[in-house]
Inverse folding.
């Protein structure tokens, strides 16, 4: 796969619809760190990049789109579908929570909330796909999705990123796969997962993708049962660390206290690796943290 | 006054201590707008710029510093004093509210909370100044303060701002004075005030600074009883509009919903002029909004 070409094509394709999210240098807990504030993207996470690239990069059937989502992906697909004039059916598990469910509703999607966890929503989405011919938009393990997410790293480099190492939170692996696909060996990428939702960490330990249990404060965003194959193929040999829920909520509080950024737990997970010491930079190593999602619950304004 | 020289000197002086805050182009309510996210500054508002410039631009007496503040200025002075190794006594009125009082406490200042409104705090600060010889750090009507706040506009231009018009919220007038001092006639500046705290609007109507009553959702940040003389001198003839509290809280909600920025009412006041129609850009007029403060109450994480 010519990832560089795919990601460049994605960037050109989605540019009219996406925000160029801001970047900033700060010192947090005494450590200089470069941030990309990707939670300022449409619908509050990087997911809009992959959604637009998927809708623009392949024909959309008359039956429209279907997605299963713990929240952020569903909101992104719903937003992209509405923007581009397609129908979208979104299945969401109750565990997504009221704030994310309301977010998807605001995008005007045909939303179905199902009891239980993500697997139930995925099953329903597959049944809908089979019945109607709607196109299933995968949340992370599809080339157009990965290429779309890769535009985030490409954009960051175009904004003048000057670091040795980038820390990225991992759920199903779409975002980090896009970053690895773009960067190749150019910079070090550190995968950060909650210790209770660590599909990539478990896969790297097992030598192949394996099913994991998912739980914890970031589960509705990072709780993939199994790492995507594309991600696993790109991530062999990378540094992978895990963080506790307490480290995640501590990093969340730090981001609010120090730079007035209120993000969801997944959005603070990569930073938590630094603040908890799960990843300790070498002397002189310059680090960056991708803030990937801001859809916190409960919604502070409702 | 050579404002251009003063502001350039301020920028050089404070650069090691301040953040270069991010900028971003977005479409809000259908209107393209350039934003500067100055609420990501140290202590959550632009006030740190003036505070550092004041402390670095003139000798600080052994007795240290004293300030009276509705919250943001006090936090900035406390932070700058601690960073530069000075003592700081901060008088705060109860109306500042628990979130801002806690923010000042976290900066390690010698904090005194007084009943009632800002005037009581100012009286106490003046008494402390007379008694101890501490330097009073004015919140807005001093050349070093205005020059410090002016670095925000200078920085924004250096970041590539391409607009005709900049909307800025006004309390005592330090921020807008700095912007006017930097820009001269180069761009149009629109002053935006809450209709219940509009010291500049009233002064422009009266032809001179006059006392006004202050109230409303942004009063602890924008509720100056009288516009600063420096601001008034620079602001003659500019466009001045007022907005309702409902317009301000509506703009606050929009910023959270659309770009996941949770700001205090003062931080959303300039945007409220656009979203409420208090200021309607001409066809083709490109506009920018300065987001000046993020210290919302109640604190969403406590």
């Amino acid at each position: 796969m010519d990832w560089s070409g795919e990601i460049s094509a994605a960037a050109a394709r989605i540019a009219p619809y996406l925000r160029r999210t801001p970047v900033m240098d700060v010192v947090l807990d005494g450590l200089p760190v470069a941030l990309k504030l990707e939670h300022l993207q449409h619908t509050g996470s990087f997911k809009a990049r992959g959604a637009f690239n998927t809708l623009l990069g392949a024909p959309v059937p008359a039956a429209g789109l279907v997605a299963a989502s713990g929240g952020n992906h569903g909101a992104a697909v719903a937003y992209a579908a509405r923007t581009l004039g397609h129908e979208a059916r979104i299945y969401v598990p109750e565990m997504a929570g009221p704030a994310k469910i309301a977010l998807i509703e605001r995008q005007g999607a045909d939303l179905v909330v199902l009891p239980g966890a993500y697997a139930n929503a995925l099953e329903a989405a597959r049944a809908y796909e089979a019945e109607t011919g709607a196109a299933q938009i995968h949340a992370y393990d599809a080339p157009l999705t990965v290429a779309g997410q890769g535009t985030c790293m490409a954009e960051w480099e175009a904004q003048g990123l000057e670091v040795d190492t980038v820390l990225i939170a991992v759920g199903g692996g779409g975002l980090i796969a896009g970053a690895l696909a773009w960067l190749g060996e150019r910079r070090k990428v550190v995968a950060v997962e909650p210790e209770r939702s660590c599909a990539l960490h478990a896969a790297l330990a097992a030598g192949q993708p394996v099913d994991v249990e998912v739980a914890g404060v970031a589960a509705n965003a990072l709780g993939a049962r199994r790492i995507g194959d594309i991600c696993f193929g790109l991530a062999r040999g990378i540094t992978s660390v895990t963080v506790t829920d307490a480290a995640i909520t501590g990093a969340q509080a730090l981001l609010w206290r120090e730079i007035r950024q209120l993000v969801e737990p997944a959005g603070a997970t990569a930073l938590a690796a630094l603040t908890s010491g799960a990843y300790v930079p070498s002397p002189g190593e310059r680090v960056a943290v991708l803030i990937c999602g801001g859809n916190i619950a409960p919604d502070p304004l409702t």
